[in-house]
C-alpha cells in the first residue's frame, strides 16, 4: 500500500483515502508547489514576496505557512474529469473532486516529479507534474489509455483552479492563437505608492496546451451549474460552452474528445503558471512547445530533464545501508533533498528568521558548502556593531521584516558559532574567519572572527546580575513572549545555549590559531554552566526560565509546562549536566516527554493562558510550540544524546521522527515518509486521539540537525581539521552498517561490523589501523576502504 | 415566483435556483447577517472591530465588505439535513448543500426575520431567523411537518458552519449540561502588545438547543467523510459519533430522531453566535430558554418580539400609493429600512468614511433626527481648526483610520452643509447652528456655524490659481488617486460640488439670520460656476478634472472614461449649467451613460491603466467605480434632475434602480428588490452579458439620496423654515398618487391627481388653497388633508 519504488526515486501510495493528506512537494528557483495525493495543491511563487496564481475561492489572508491546513471542496487543485460519452459516467483523477473509487490507484512522490496512475472502468489516467529549473510554472503531462477490450468514446477535461483572484479586477478568456486560457487580475491595493510595485507583478494565470481543445470553459459558475464541483452540469453537454469570466471566478478547463481503440493512448501536455502578459505566454508557448533543440527535444522535455538534473545536484554526502531499510530510504533519498530545499529556497521568504537562515545553511554545508559560506557572510553583514543580530535576514532590497520578525528575540547570536562549526568540519575552510565583512550600519568592516567575538560578547553582556541571559520577547521559542518583556525575565535554555556557543567558539578559535582566546571562552562556558546549575536545576531536570516576576518555570511544581525538552539536551551539550544530572534528566524526558511519535517539546501542554509565560500557552494543546513533538527540538535533544554517547535513546528517538514502520503508525501520522514535518501533534497523554499527526509543514530547522545526528553521531563520520574522525554509535540492535561518505573530494567506503572478540572499536583505512579513528591527509579524488570493527556489546 | 407577501412584511422567492444569490439581511446593535436564499451566510459582529463566529474553511483576509462575492461549497451557511430513516434518502433545507430540488420552496425576506419553507418528499421544513435587539446572536426556529399520508421516521440534523477559526488554537465539543456545542479559538496575534485586546474577545462560537439532541458532531472532517459536504458519510450511520474537534475544523451538527404521524409536526429552536466563555453560554440558555416573563414568554420569544419592534421604529416619513406597485412596495417597506440600517450601524465599521457618515445621517434625518443631530456634532468635533475634515469619523476610542481612510481625500467638507440642510428641512432645528463644538486638536470650541464657515473657507482656499479645487489622492471617487497626487491636479466635480455647497450654505445662513454672509457665499458660488464653465465645459458636457500634468479628462477626445456622470448632475445643482448646457449634457448622459439598468458612472469603462487618472482605471470594467451603474452617483443625478424640474428623465432613472418589473430583468440583476445595491454591473455597451448584475452590497450612500429624490423631488413634500412645500413632480404617465407624509409631528394625507382644466398645479389643505403650495404653521398631532390638482399635461 505504501512503498518505495524499485528505483528508489519515488515513494508510492496505493489509495487516496488511506492517507488523505499525503503529499509531496517540488520547488525551483522561483516557486514551490505542495501536491496532495487527491489533487489539491498549494503553490506560491516569489515576485519578490510570495504570490499565488491559483487562488482559494474567497479572499484568503496573506500569512506565513500554516500547519495542519484543512482541505475543502473548492480548495485549489489540479484535476482531470473523464466522461464516457456512451454511458455518461464521469470520474476524476487523481480522486477529487468526484471521488469515484479507482480500480487501481498510485500516487508516486518523486524527487523531481509527482505522478499519479488512476484506473477507473478500463480507462487509465496518468498525470505527472514537474517544474522547470528557474521559471515559476507547472509542467503537466496527462496520458489517457484505453485498458478495456472495446473502443471508447471519451471526453477528458483537464481542470486547473484559478479561484478568486482579486476584488479589483479579474477575468479570463481562451486565446485561440495561444491555445491557452489566460486569466487576468490586478493585485488589490489602495495607496498610489504601491502602484509602482503592483504594476510589475505577474498578475495573470495561464493554462497553455500542446494540443488544441475542442472546447473550453473559463467561468467556474457556468462550468459547475447546479451540479457543483463534484458533478459539474457542463459535463452533461456534448461540448463546453466556450465561455469567459468577467469579474467572475475564473477556472481553466479544456475539453478533448477522443476515440480510443483497445490499448490505444493519447498524451497531452499543459503548462500552468503566472505571467505578466499575453506576450509572455506566447513566448512560453514558443519556447516550450514549438522550438526544438539539437537533440530534438522541445523546451518542455528539456526543462523536465534539466530540472531533474538540478534536483540531483542536491544529493547528500552519505549513502547508507543498515538493518533499517526505511531509514536507508529516507536518508539516502529524501533527507538531503529536504536539506537542499531549505538551502535553495530560504523557505520562500525574503526575510528568513536569522536562526532559521543560519541553521538552513548549516545543512547546506553538507551539500553546497559555497552557498553556505556566502549565506553566513550575508548574515554577518547585517549584524549590528554592538554584536547583536537582527531578527531576520533581508534577502531582497525591497524586503522588510514581517510577522514574527518584528518581535525582538535574544538568541540569534548563539547560532553563529554553532552553525559555522559544521561548515568548518565539512570544508576545513578556516579562511572564512579572516573574511572582511561590513556591519549593518555601514560603520566599517571587520573579520568574521571579530564579528563572532562581538556576538559572543553581546551574549555575555545581555544578562542579569545572576549571569542569566535575558529573553526579552522570545528566544528560539517565538511565542514565549511574555516571560521577559518587562526586561527582567531570563531564558534558561538561552543561558545554556550560550555556554555551548562559547565552547564551540572556543574550539573554532583554537583551531583558528587563537589558543589564548579559546581559553577565555572555555572559562566563560564553565562559569555559565555553574550559574545554570545554581539557578536552573530543579532536582530532576533543568527549568526553562525565570519570569519578569522572578518565578522559575518549567519545574516539578508546575501543573502545565512542567518540563521542557530544550534545557535538558542543551545542558548535555554545554557540559552543565554531570553524569548524575544526565541520568536524572534523561529519565524525566523518557517518562514525561517521550511518546510513540517522538519527544514532546514540553509537557503537559498548556490548556489555558499563563500570562507570565505568554502566547505559547495559548497555542492549541499539542500543536506547534505548545507540546507538539516539535522535531526541531527533538533533533537538538538527539544530537545532544549522541554528543555524550547515549546512542540507544538517541537512535530510538531519531527513528520516531519517521513514520512507521507499522501501517497503523503511518496512518496516524497521515504522511508519507518523504519529508520530516516541523511537528507531529503532541499532548499524547492529554489528547491521545490526535497525537502523532503530521503538521504537513516541511519548512523546519529539524533537517540539518538530523543530518548532523547522522554525521557526527550515529555513523560518526565528522570532519576535523586533520581529516575525518570515524566514531560510529550504532544502536545495539544493529550488527552492521555500510556508509559511503563523500568528504572534501574523497570517497570513503565504510563497513561497520560488530565482531566477536573486539573489545574496543577499531578503525582501518585501506587496511591500516587509525589512531583514535582519525583518517588524515585525505586526497581528493581518492576512494578509501574503511573498515570499522565494533564490539558485540558496547 | 417573486412577489411581496400579502401583509407586505416579506418579499418572497419560490425557487432557490432562479436567483441563486438572492438574499436578505438583518442587523441589530451589535451585528449584521446577510442570508442567501440557498442557506449561505455572511455574518459579522463588533468587538469593537468586525469579527466572525462562523468562518470560511480557510484563513480568510480581513477586509472591507466586497461586492459580488462568490459562494462555494464550503461557504459559511446554516442548513438542515433531513434523512428518511426508512429509505435513507437525504435532502437539505434551504437547498444547499445537498441541492435536492424541492417540491415547494419559499424564501421570504422579512423586515425582522428571514423565513424558508421547503417541502421535499412530503416533509416540510420551516426555518426562520431573527435576532435579539442588542446581542450578537442568531435566533433560529426549525419546524418539521409530516405532510404525507404515512408515518415518517426521520432524522433531522441542523448544521451550522463554524469553519477555520484560528491557526493558534481551535477546538469544539458538546456540553451535555448546556445542551450546546461550544467551539473555542484564540484570535491569532504575534505581538504581546495585542494580548490585552485579544483576551477580551468573544472567541467562542456556540450552538445552543432548546431540546436535547440524540447525538451530535463537532468535527467537520469526521462528519463529511468521503461523502463530502453534499452527502456526509456520517448521515449513513444511525447516530452521529458524538465527536469533538481538537485543532480540527469545528462544525455544529445536532441530530434529532423523530416519528411523525401524518400531519404531525415538531418544532425546535437554536441560538448560534459568539461568546466569551461557557458561563456566558449558560447565562444565555437561562435567559432565553429557561426563564419566562410575566406574559409567559421565554427570553427567545420576547427577543423576537422586541427585535420586531426595534425594526419597526425605523419606518420612514412617507407612505405612498402610486400606479407603480413595485415602487410603492419598495418605498413603503424596504427603502426606509435600508436608510435606518445605515444610520443605526454606520456600516459596521468603527471609522466610517466622513462623506458616508454624513450622508448616512442625512438619511437618518428622516427617521431619527436626534441621532442625525448627534452624529453631525460628533463629525464636527473631529474637524481640524484649519476647517478640513478627517477622512473617517472615529466612533470608538480604540478605533483607527483603516484601509481607504489612510488616503487623503479633499471632498469631505462639501457634505457638511448639504447633509445638514436635509436635517434642517426635516426638523427646522436651526438651534443646531449655535451648538458649541470642539475641534479635533482640543484647541477650543466654536459654534456649528463657525465650524462650517471654516469648512467652506477651507474649500475656497484649497484651489489652484484658476480657482479649481485640488483633488489630491481622491475625492468622492476614492480610486481616482493619481489625478492630483503630485499636488497640482484638480477635480472638476469637486469644484462644482463646492459651488453647490456654497449655495446650500448660503440658504442655511440666510434662514439662520445671516443675510449678509449668505450673499457672500452666493457670490462665491457664482464665481465658482464661472470658473467651471471656463475650464471644464467640453462642448457637450463637463469634464471630470484636470491632471497634475494639466490634461483635461472625461472629455470627448478620450477613448475611455469619456464622460462621467457626476460633473453633469452637480452642474445642474450648482447652477453652472444654463438651459442650453443642460439640454446638451442630458442628451450626452442618455446617449452614453444610460442603460436598461440605470445610468453608468462613467463610460466607456477603462480597460487598462491610465496612470494620470489612477487606480479607478484598473478596476474591473463595469465594476465598482469603473463604469458600474453606481447607484450613489445615479441618485445624485436624479436628484439634480428633480432640482431643475426634469421629472421624466428623473423618474425613468429612479425606476431603474429597482429590479423589474419584468422577470427577465430581475433575473439579470440577480437580486430581490429588498435593498438597493451599491452598484449594478455596468459597461453595458462593452460587456452586455454581465451588465445589470447586482453587487449584492447594501452599504451605500445611495439610499438617503433616493429618499431625498422622493421627498424633495417626485412627491415634492420638502420641509421649509415656514412649514412644508407641496410641489410634486409626477411623471407624465401617472394620473394620480397618494402620499401620507409624517412631518414635524403632523400628518399630511395628500392626494395628487391630474385633472382636466387645471393649468397650473393647485394645492389645497383641508380645502384651503395654498400660495406656492406651502403649508405653514403646522400643528403637531394634527392630520391635514391635502389635495393637489395637477394639469393633465405639464
TrEMBL record, chains A, B:
Domain Glycosyl hydrolase 94 catalytic: 318-716
CDD domains tied to this protein: GH94N_NdvB_like
Keywords: Glycosyltransferase, Transferase
Pfam families reported in the protein's UniProt record: GH94_b-supersand, Glyco_hydro_94
UniProt organism field: Paenibacillus vini
InterPro entries registered for this protein in UniProt: 6-hairpin_glycosidase_sf, 6hp_glycosidase-like_sf, Gal_mutarotase_sf_dom, GH65_N, GH94_catalytic, GH94_Enzymes, GH94N_CBAP, Glyco_hydrolase_94_b-supersand
Domain (Glycosyl hydrolase 94 supersandwich): residue spans on this chain: 74-288
Name this protein carries in UniProt: Cellobionic acid phosphorylase
Amino acid at each position: 500500500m505504501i512503498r518505495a519504488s524499485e528505483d528508489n526515486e519515488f515513494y508510492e501510495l496505493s489509495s487516496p483515502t488511506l492517507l488523505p493528506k499525503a503529499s509531496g512537494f517540488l520547488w525551483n528557483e522561483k516557486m514551490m508547489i505542495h501536491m496532495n495525493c487527491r489533487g489539491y495543491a498549494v503553490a506560491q511563487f516569489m515576485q519578490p514576496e510570495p504570490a499565488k496564481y491559483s487562488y482559494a475561492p474567497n479572499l484568503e489572508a496573506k500569512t506565513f505557512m500554516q500547519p495542519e491546513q484543512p482541505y475543502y471542496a473548492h480548495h485549489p487543485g489540479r484535476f482531470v474529469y473523464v466522461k464516457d460519452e456512451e454511458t455518461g459516467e464521469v470520474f476524476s483523477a487523481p480522486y477529487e473532486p468526484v471521488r469515484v473509487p479507482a480500480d487501481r490507484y498510485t500516487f508516486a512522490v518523486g524527487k523531481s516529479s509527482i505522478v499519479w496512475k488512476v484506473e477507473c472502468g478500463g480507462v487509465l489516467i496518468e498525470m505527472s507534474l514537474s517544474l522547470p529549473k528557474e521559471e515559476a510554472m507547472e509542467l503537466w503531462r496527462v496520458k489517457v489509455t484505453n485498458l478495456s477490450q472495446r473502443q471508447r468514446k471519451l471526453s477528458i477535461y483537464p481542470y486547473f483552479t484559478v479561484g478568486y483572484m482579486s476584488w479589483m479586477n479579474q477575468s479570463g478568456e481562451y486565446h485561440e492563437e495561444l491555445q491557452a486560457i489566460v486569466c487576468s487580475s490586478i493585485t488589490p491595493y489602495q495607496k498610489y505608492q504601491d502602484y509602482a510595485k503592483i504594476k510589475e507583478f505577474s498578475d495573470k494565470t495561464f493554462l497553455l496546451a500542446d494540443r488544441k481543445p475542442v472546447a473550453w470553459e473559463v467561468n467556474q459558475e457556468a462550468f459547475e451549474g447546479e451540479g457543483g464541483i463534484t458533478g459539474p452540469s457542463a459535463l452533461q453537454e456534448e461540448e463546453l460552452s466556450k465561455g469567459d469570466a468577467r469579474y467572475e471566478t475564473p477556472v481553466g478547463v479544456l475539453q478533448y474528445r477522443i476515440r480510443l481503440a483497445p490499448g490505444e493512448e493519447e498524451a497531452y501536455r499543459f503548462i500552468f503558471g503566472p505571467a505578466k502578459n499575453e506576450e509572455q505566454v506566447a513566448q512560453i508557448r514558443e519556447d516550450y512547445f514549438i522550438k526544438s533543440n539539437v537533440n530534438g527535444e522541445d523546451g518542455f522535455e528539456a526543462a523536465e530533464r534539466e530540472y531533474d538534473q538540478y534536483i540531483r545536484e542536491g544529493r547528500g554526502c552519505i549513502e547508507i545501508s543498515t538493518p533499517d531499510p526505511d531509514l536507508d530510504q529516507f536518508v539516502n533519498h529524501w533527507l538531503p533533498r529536504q536539506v537542499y530545499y531549505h538551502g535553495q529556497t530560504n523557505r520562500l521568504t525574503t526575510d528568513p528568521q536569522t536562526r532559521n537562515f543560519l541553521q538552513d545553511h548549516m545543512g547546506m554545508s553538507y551539500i553546497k558548502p559555497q552557498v553556505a559560506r556566502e549565506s553566513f557572510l550575508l548574515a554577518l553583514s547585517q549584524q549590528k556593531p554592538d554584536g547583536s543580530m537582527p531578527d531576520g535576514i533581508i534577502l531582497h532590497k525591497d524586503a522588510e521584516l514581517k510577522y514574527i520578525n518584528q518581535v525582538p528575540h535574544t538568541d540569534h547570536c548563539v547560532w553563529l558559532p554553532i552553525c559555522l562549526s559544521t561548515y568548518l568540519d565539512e570544508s576545513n575552510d578556516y579562511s572564512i574567519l579572516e573574511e572582511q565583512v561590513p556591519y549593518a550600519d555601514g560603520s566599517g568592516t571587520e573579520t568574521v572572527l571579530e564579528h563572532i567575538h562581538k556576538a559572543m560578547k553581546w551574549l555575555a553582556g545581555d544578562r542579569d546580575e545572576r549571569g542569566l541571559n535575558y529573553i526579552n520577547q522570545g528566544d528560539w521559542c517565538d511565542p514565549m513572549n511574555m516571560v521577559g518583556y518587562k526586561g527582567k525575565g531570563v531564558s534558561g535554555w538561552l543561558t545554556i545555549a550560550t555556554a555551548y556557543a562559547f565552547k564551540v567558539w572556543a574550539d573554532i578559535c583554537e583551531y583558528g590559531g587563537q589558543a589564548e582566546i579559546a581559553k577565555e571562552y572555555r572559562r566563560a562556558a564553565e562559569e555559565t554552566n555553574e550559574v545554570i546549575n545554581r539557578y536552573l536545576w530543579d532536582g530532576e531536570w533543568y527549568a526553562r526560565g525565570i519570569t519578569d516576576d522572578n518565578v522559575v518555570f518549567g519545574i516539578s511544581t508546575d501543573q502545565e509546562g512542567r518540563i521542557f525538552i530544550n534545557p535538558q539536551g542543551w545542558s548535555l551539550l554545554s557540559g552543565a549536566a554531570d553524569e548524575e544530572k544526565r541520568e536524572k534528566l534523561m529519565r524525566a524526558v523518557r517518562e514525561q516527554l517521550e511518546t510513540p511519535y517522538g519527544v514532546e517539546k514540553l509537557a503537559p501542554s498548556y490548556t489555558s493562558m499563563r500570562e507570565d509565560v505568554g502566547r505559547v500557552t495559548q497555542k492549541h494543546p499539542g500543536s506547534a510550540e505548545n507540546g507538539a513533538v516539535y522535531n526541531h527540538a527533538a533533533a537538538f535533544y538527539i544530537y545532544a544524546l549522541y554528543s555524550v554517547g547515549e546512542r540507544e535513546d538517541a537512535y530510538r528517538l531519531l527513528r520516531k521522527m519517521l513514520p512507521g514502520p507499522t501501517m497503523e503508525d503511518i496512518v496516524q501520522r497521515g504522511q508519507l515518509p518523504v519529508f520530516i514535518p516541523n511537528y507531529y501533534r503532541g499532548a499524547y497523554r492529554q489528547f491521545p486521539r490526535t497525537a502523532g499527526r503530521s503538521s504537513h509543514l516541511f519548512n523546519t530547522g529539524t533537517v540539518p540537525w538530523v543530518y548532523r545526528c547522522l554525521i557526527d553521531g550515529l555513523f560518526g563520520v565528522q570532519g576535523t581539521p586533520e581529516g575525518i574522525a570515524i566514531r560510529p554509535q550504532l544502536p545495539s540492535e544493529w550488527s552492521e552498517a555500510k556508509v559511503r561518505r563523500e568528504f572534501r573530494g574523497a570517497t570513503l567506503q565504510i563497513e561497520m561490523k560488530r565482531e566477536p572478540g573486539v573489545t574496543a572499536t577499531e578503525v582501518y583505512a585501506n587496511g591500516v589501523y587509525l589512531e583514535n579513528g582519525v583518517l588524515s591527509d585525505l586526497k581528493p579524488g581518492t576512494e578509501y576502504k574503511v573498515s570499522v570493527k565494533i564490539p558485540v556489546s558496547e
